Amino acid sequence: MSRRSGILEFAVLGLLRESPMHGYELRKRLNTSLGVFRAFSYGTLYPCLKGLVATGWLIEETGGAPEGAPAALTGRRAKIVYRLTTAGKEHFEELLSHSGPDAWEDEHFGVRFAFFGQTSRDVRMRVLEGRRSRLEERLEKMRTSLARTRERLDDYTLELQRHGMESVEREVRWLNELIESERSGRDQRAPESAARDKQDQSGDTGGLPRHRGGTRPDPSDDTTT
């Protein structure tokens, strides 16, 4: 399984854990909520769904056409609703517990972060600290490279290098705030999510800091390539 297909399966299982959905609704959520899937097609989604059905992690049910679906999608395929099975929920819980290097990488981190509301605090901490460590390593390499080559760079290339460094520095600062918030035990998720987490995890809490300016940045926006 490729890394990208693994990320897609994780995202699909996570969204369906919230509620059953049509393929059209799933694609819309993937496009609008998870930036890594903005350039996305049914030709990629449906093989993934069929594979998850074959493994027993999803089941297909017959339902009405999703609201807002194009006319071309109101036929037989559009009427299939995908629902997570008990085995699928258990598999997703297992995936949520993973906090190794794959969870820190550029593509996967944004998707993992989107499901932090369903993730235990100790795992959130390991993922955040791993991501910060990875970015600090990247930042040090960028600084070393810039110091070595800056005399040979024109002004525009130099500005591009500086912009990349500033983006990484900004994400490191953001991660520092998140980590401090997790350590202090603040929980600023929706009340129902926090209550469910307390019930499921025996009082374990965590959360997101209130960002200056009133908004929280999308981690995928500040990641350099």
Spatial extent as radius of gyration? 20 Å
Give the biggest beta sheet: 3 strands, antiparallel
Count the E strands.
3
* Share of helical residues: 55-70%
Outline type: elongated
Spatial strand order of the main sheet: 1-3-2
Structural class: mainly alpha
Report the end-to-end length measured between terminal Cα atoms: 23 Å
Describe the protein's architecture and organization.
The protein is 58% helix and 5% strand. Strands 1-3-2 form a 3-stranded antiparallel sheet. It has 2 domains: 3-96, Orthogonal Bundle (Arc Repressor Mutant, subunit A), CATH 1.10.10; 109-208 and 215-222, no CATH class. The protein has 225 residues and is mainly α. It is elongated. The protein contains 8 helices and 3 strands, in the order αβααββααααα.
Summarize the structure.
The protein has helices at 3-18, 23-33, 42-54, 86-96, 106-114, 121-149, 155-184, 191-201, and strands at 21-22, 58-62, 80-84. It is mostly helical. The two termini are 23 Å apart.
What descriptors fit this protein?
single chain, 225 residues, mainly alpha, Arc Repressor Mutant, subunit A, 2 domains, three-stranded antiparallel beta sheet, elongated
